Amino acid sequence: MNTLTQAQKDNHASVNQRLGLAPDAHLTLSNQIKSIQQQKKNLVFSSDPLESDVPPIHVSVGSIAEFKKMVGVPDGNDDGHVTYPDPLADHHRQLMSAVGSKAELLSRMDDQLFDKMQKAAYAYVMGDSRKVQEYEPLINSLMFPGRIAVFTGEDLDIPSGETYTIKGEDPVVMNFEEITEGQNAEIMITTNCSLHTQYFTQK
């Protein structure tokens, strides 16, 4: 295990602080994870407590702007990895202006608008929110208020040959001081996930 500098410790703690977690939350969950690892292989980290091997910490989120603040990706960062949706089509703008309720909007929106909204929500949080500003009212009306699932700890060691899966309908935030993948181990992510670590080691 690597020794963290004070700056790295502060970086790790600042993520949990933005999420509103107790200062010792990562210590409590670290002990739980180590205990579970003694009993099971190929752990699942899910926002759904019924399918998660590790109990998630759920945090309420009021808006997409609040979610972005929690994740901590500022506007203006390198966003080459982010795919932004095309601007809203005129007929979609007209639809948003005409509907009077969330239920009506859901019943009238097409797959294209839904896909654009999902892409815009990811881009808002992980990229430059200013580039998808026109989607913000739509995202907030259909996706918020909501919740995220948080998993945090000191070190997460994935044993050789095992696969740890991150999944669930709600977004997941992983915040560990250090993550180590054993030989032929892997992390499989099937949901929107923000992963924070000070050291990531592959053996």
What would your notes on this structure say?
The chain has 203 residues and is of the alpha/beta class. It has 2 domains: 6-60 and 146-202, no CATH class; 75-142, no CATH class. Helix content is 36%, strand content 25%. The protein has 7 helices and 7 strands; from the N terminus they run ααββαααααβββββ. It has a 4-stranded mixed beta sheet with strand order 2-3-5-7. A 3-stranded parallel beta sheet has the order 1-4-6, with no helix packed on it. Helix 3 (64-71) runs parallel beside helix 6 (111-126). The longest helix is centred in the middle third of the chain and has 16 residues, at 111-126. The model has no long low-confidence stretch (mean pLDDT 94).
Summarize the structure.
The chain is of the alpha/beta class and about 200 residues long. The protein has helices at about 5-20, 25-35, 65-70, 90-100, 100-110, 110-125, 135-145; strands spanning about 45, 55-60, 145-160, 165, 170-180, 185-190, 195-200. It has two domains: about 5-60 and about 145-200, no CATH class; about 75-140, no CATH class.
How would you write the strand order of the largest sheet?
Answer: 2-3-5-7
Q: Summarize model confidence as the mean pLDDT.
A: 94
Q: What is the tally of helical segments?
A: 7
- Structural class designation: alpha/beta
Distance between the termini: 12 Å
- Identify low-pLDDT runs: none
